[in-house]
Amino acid sequence: MTLDTQRLQKTIHALLSTGKGILAADESSGTIKKRFASISLESTAESRRDYRDMLLRSEGYERHISGVILYDETVDQMSCSGHTFSQLVFSRGVIPGIKTDEGKEEHPFWGPQTVTRGLKGLGERLRAYTERSKGTLGFTKWRQVIVVDPPPSDGFLDYTMHVMAEQAAWSLQCGFVPICEPEILMDGSHSLDQCRAAIERTLRMLYKCMEEQHVDPALTILKTNMALSGKDALTDPSATVATATLKAFHHSLPTTLPGIVFLSGGQRSPKATENLNACALEAKQTNAPWVITFSYGRALQDDALKLWGGKAANVLSAQAVFLKRARLNGLAQQGKYDQRMEKE
Ligand code: 13P
Predict the structure, then answer these.
(1) pTM of the model
(2) Hey, is 224 helix, strand or coil?
(3) For residue 203, how many other CB atoms are within 10 A of its CB?
(4) CB of 297 closer than 6 A to ligand 1?
(5) Atom of ligand 1 nearest to the CA of 300
(6) pLDDT tens for each residue of 126-173
């Protein structure tokens, strides 16, 4: 199999540009329905279009955002700009990508762990995405969630990370940079150290599986979580989070991996920014070989969604809030964020 390595590397380089990160706007129909319910808005094709239109037509967001993860519906949905969303994103010099997993399913014996589906016919789906987006999509994203307590079995990690490695192989073959997202969930009352141990086990398994399937980590991006206590302990000091997170990475990641993008996972927006800043500083201090940045969903969108509230009259103020959040995360990516900036 010959890969278009040059194109893949160019995409990686652009996605990991200094001061920028990725916007995760790939909420599935079920997830966006829940987000809209929080602002008492019905989820329809039109309301979803208006919301994503508000985000993706923000003036100048491309200064802080290098890529946008889209959902199946959004790829060729017409935005109010008269272009499809993938073309709209691309026209701003931002790389659109696509969530390719088809969500999680229960397994008869592995509960509470769940298994991510979507491998069947993936090659064909990816080729169709190239057509549907008129060749603008540059990357894929595949998410597998992992519960910390009770700890995942070796068999579960082996199976799910093999699946993740296989979707990475299909993505590469079809010309997409795979963003592989094992997410250790915050849900539960586990300690930060239990989370760190789960990150290490999961990531070691992922790169072992990639090796077995001849997937070169240098052509992939890792999306994962920081080492955090369960949701009951959202007060972890940033320095502790950063030390544990980078320790886990140094223990489990290949040095050839180009970059890691963090999900926010339920952290409040300013906390996710503060923790990113601490991780950026820790990465510098420990000579980490990877670019580290953000790929937040909720932590970039929460405040803008609330302010927008489904009303056209609020579009400009919601966009301003989104832009501020993106800018602060862009600074945090460089270790230049200060909490006082929240008040500016
Ligand atoms: P959050 O930042 O809201 O966790 O979402 C990121 C994501 O892409 C989940 O798959």
Answers:
(1) 0.98
(2) strand
(3) 25
(4) yes
(5) 2
(6) 999 999 999 999 999 999 999 999 999 999 999 999 999 999 999 999
